[in-house]
Each structure stands twice: as C-alpha cells, then as structure tokens.
Specification:
The protein is built from six helices and six strands. By secondary structure, it is α/β, with parallel strands linked by helices. It has a domain of about 90 residues. Strands 5-4-3-2-1-6 form a six-stranded parallel β-sheet. It is globular, with a radius of gyration of 14 Å. The protein starts with 5 loop residues before the first strand and ends in a 6-residue tail after the last helix.
C-alpha cells in the first residue's frame, strides 16, 4: 500500500520542500487537517506542488481524524487516500468506498517526518533515502 517515506506537510512550502529532492515520497497532511483545511484545500495544495515537481514519485494522504463525514466528502472530492481513526462511525463503509475508488483508509497515520519540527528540513533527504521500502 504505502511504499514511500511519509512527510507531514502543513502548506505549499512544505510540499515543495518534500518534493524537491526528487525521491519517492508520501505527502501526509497534518493530523486532522481535513477538519481545518478541508479536502479542497488539500487537493489544491497537492496539485500545485505536483505541477512544480512533475517527475517526483509522490502519493498523498489526507488525515480526517475521527470525522467520517469529512472522509466521505474527501472521497466525493476525489481524495481517496485517507487516515480515519478506527473508532469513527462507519469506518468500514468509508474504507470500502475508498477501495472501490482505488484508494485506502488507514486507521492511523504512518511514521512520518514532520516538516514543522525543528531541523526537519536538514533531515529530509536522509529520511527519504533511508525510510523507503528497502529499509522498512
């Protein structure tokens, strides 16, 4: 399912930074970002970042926390790789819909480098290089 190292991005500058090395990466929203930014914001952020880094192998995952409604909205908006807490109502139904759309729902976010943390940018290249599937 996820074979690229995950990096938590909080906006377009973070997404550009995560994609700039040109290494495979999963752009992961901040925890619960669907509640504050929404799926349209996420979709626009990902599109803008990918437009500048077309050759970088990248996936993206939106964190919906415990909001099944926002997860369903994201699926309607063509965002089909999600984090949704397992205690969220209707988790299985949301996961089934995501799977039918070629995506998935994770019960928890994968291990990730959070670009909001101090010195994360300095650690980014090593994280992307050393956290891939061959090193998992």
């Amino acid at each position: 399912m996820i074979v690229r190292p995950a990096v938590i991005v909080h906006g377009l500058p973070d997404a550009h930074a995560a994609l700039a090395p040109g290494l495979p990466v999963t752009l992961l929203s901040a925890p619960g970002a669907a509640l504050s930014g929404g799926c349209l914001w996420w979709r626009a952020l990902i599109a803008a970042a990918r437009a500048e880094h077309e050759k970088t192998d990248a996936a993206d995952i939106l964190d919906c926390a415990d909001s099944s409604g926002l997860a369903l909205g994201a699926l309607r908006g063509s965002v089909c790789r999600l984090v949704l807490w397992p205690e969220a109502p209707g988790w299985n139904a949301v996961a089934a819909i995501a799977e039918r759309q070629g995506g998935f729902v994770l019960p928890a976010a994968p291990a990730a480098l959070d670009l909001a943390h101090r010195n994360a940018i300095r650690r980014l290249h090593a994280w992307l290089r050393d956290s891939g599937p061959a090193n998992a």
